[in-house]
Amino acid sequence: MLFDHNVLAWSQLPDDARVHSWLARDAVGPTPAGRSFRAMEPHIIYPIDMDDYAWWETEQKGWIEVTVRWAAGERSITFYDATRLSQSVRDGLAHRGYFAERIVVVPSVTRNALESAVTNMAEHDFVEMS
Question: Which top-level group of life is the source organism from (predicted)?
Fold first, then answer.
């Protein structure tokens, strides 16, 4: 799948102007910008407007919590890189005695890595998120 980072599914997003999403380029249907989208294509809703600096900062932190929407539902998912995940697990065990989150581990927390993971999960109907 190819992605067009400028296509926003306005009809599916909350009114909060900080929320942005991506959709597949091969989608069908009108958007405010005159582009197309398929309402059931999976997309990521980011917590803030993700410019280059925000992506650099997110990659350095090693995690981001986003909402992923697809035909069968919507889930809040935290994406981690392996280093940050081990730190978070260690902290959770030390402070609470457990670690529990809905997570996806990626090599690095970048836009490409997140979109690739979501695309792969979509190809398997998000069975990992059930």
Answer: Bacteria
